[in-house]
Amino acid sequence: MSLLDHLPVLVVLLPLMSAPLCVLVDRPFAGWLIALVASLLSFASAIGLLLQVGGGDAISYQLGGWAPPWGIEYRIDLLSAFVLLIVTGIASLVMLFARHSVTAEIPEGRIARFYAALLLAFAGLAGIVATGDAFNVFVFLEISSLASYAVISMGRDRRALNAAFEYLIMGTIGATFILIGIGFLYMMTGTLNMLDLAARLPEVADTRTVRAGFAFLTVGIGLKLAMFPLHLWLPNAYAYAPSAVTAFLAATATKVAVYVLLRFTLEIFGAEFSLGAMPLDLILMALGLIGMLSASLVAVFQHNVKRLLAYSSVAQIGYMLLGIGLASTTGATAAILHIFNHALMKGALFLAVGAVAYRIGAVTLRDFAGLGQRMPWTTAAIVLGGLSLIGVPPTVGFISKWYLVLGTLEQGLWPVAALVLIGSLLAVLYIWKLVEAAYFEPAPAGADTAHEAPWSMLLPIWLLVGANLYFGIDTDIPVGVATQAADALIGSGR
Q1: Domain total in the chain
Q2: Which end of the chain is more exposed for a tag (fewer CB within 10 A), N or C?
Q3: What pLDDT was estimated at residue 463?
Q4: Which strand (E) or helix (H) includes residue 295?
């Protein structure tokens, strides 16, 4: 076997095995370099996987040579390769950005351990996407969650400890619900392999046990993806975590949770059961719309920019849930597309805010006053990322909302399409607050010492901004992949 045959496991093993190396070397620069190299190699593996499955054939990697469903299988299809590309790409850019940012925010003695924990969070997210085993989803979820609690708690604000504790409590409840749901499915089918589960569940779909398992899984995954009203852990976690952590989690963790929701509801249970026999379509549409509007409204009144963007993330998750709730190929395409597009826009925004935190030491609206003159490149990135968040053409945000509106209009849901547009108008209000402060308010006294962030921070920010613009114009790759993946998922339930 060639090295290419082992890419499904290498994409997970590279960050997983690099984490203890960071602790062993226990040097800040060495820890950063190990994390960066591991992330880049994992990203290269994800690109290789996407190229391999581009033709539509999934890759089955049997651990230990045991054939599924008896052995553990890593299974990479077009959707999982697409999400792996997002996770590994964001991780690589965040690691590049992190060198200066982490040095400013984390005590020197903890930096190597910080990178080890961040790599574990990364490995856990990659494992969730790569595995074809339902129980392994829970295992990797716990690896990622435990590491995330640790890195969030390392924020320099003491409130980071409270945020990490809140996340721990809510995350533990979510993980417990997921484990109970998987246990119920195993009790009825005797298998944990996802494809085998999908084949066996229709025979027992009418039982109370399967319906209870479905309910536990939906609520547990809803907690992990910050679905309204289960999102209360997210604003504080994003606001008080170190800047690199906020950018990484905002662009990856909730997206992977949406991926898990898609995988379980549309592939394992099937669209007919999840969005037909069970009223999940109506629930997701209702909660998606409420979350989209209420979180956007709350964001308008925030003064801490990281909290503002955190509530914006809750609103954007509402768009993804609405797309799934439409129970159509166009709706699922919009949801999958927004997983990719939101990772680009929110990654760019949180990294840019992290650059502001590095230079100024705070990220309130008051600190943004006059920032356009002092940090022109960073501020321009925030403006372009904000335009993408609103959905202004030719950014990726416009493409997501276009497909979402198309999905609603296909079903004659004009009021829902109107609410999507209202959500975009609310985004204009809170993004305008940033623009107004940066360009139209005078800088506070003594602020003339601030200057632009280092190139190693600006480079990943502008790579993401460039991707926001490029994939908003050339949509062939993301739209093509999202459409194929949506066809496979919706078709698997019919």
Answers
A1: 1
A2: N
A3: 95
A4: helix 280-300
